[in-house]
Amino acid sequence: RRGVYQSMQLRFGRITLNVDTATTPFWVPGVCLIDTACALMGAQTGRLEGDFLANPEKFFVACGRLRGSFFHIRHLTSAKKDKTIRLTGFSQRNAIETTFDERVGDDESTTQSTSVSDYFERKYNIKLQFPRLPLASTRFGEFPLEVCFSADGERYKEVLQDRKSVV
After folding, report:
1. Contact indicator for 21, 4 with CB cutoff of 8 Å
2. Reduced 3-state DSSP string for 12-79
3. In 3-state terms, what secondary structure has residue 146?
4. To pair with 148 at 20 to 30 A between CA atoms, which of 66, 68, 89, 102?
């Protein structure tokens, strides 16, 4: 519920439930990081990539507030396969420029260089709408923002300046 923060802890051999009212805002869970980036930059979804290319620094400053927060990666078919990962930052390269060696065929030693954009299209049938945006960096690798969604219970770590709602 909005404005309520709850936690469970194991203390003295018992489970303790702590429920407090919170004066801090939370990110709305399940929102795509594309929509969050648009809100933080004050951009429309269809213009986000163009706004980024025109002024990348604005994107990195605005979206820097997301560092340290958790998000779900949703590119697999089952919701049970969602991974929750902490965002460490954003890459300096996009999904077209970022390549890696992908194993091909049954032979473990045969690899080919492929871009993140091509990989998601071929492997998951996901054609990225924003392949020129930076990737979300994590300790597990880099992911397109389009497959990243905010996790439940993530607190907005900065002070709100006015009564605008947080994404």
Report:
1. yes
2. CCEEEEEEEECCCCECCCCCEHHHHHHHHHCCCHHHHHHHHHHCHHHHHHHHHHHCCCEEEECCCCCH
3. helix
4. 102
Read off the tokens for 47.
């213009």
104-160: pLDDT as tens digits: 877 777 888 999 999 999 988 999 999 999 999 999 999 999 999 998 878 777 665
For residues 63 and 52, give the distance between their C-alpha atoms in angstroms, rounded to a whole number: 11
Place of tokens 């439930």: 17
State the Cα–Cα distance between residues 125 and 84, nearest whole angstrom: 22
- From the list 119, 166, 160, 138, the residue with the least C-alpha distance to 73 is 138
Q: What is the end-to-end Cα distance of the chain in Å, rounded?
A: 15
Q: In 3-state terms, what secondary structure has residue 11? A: strand
Q: Are 160 and 166 in contact (CB under 8 A)?
A: yes
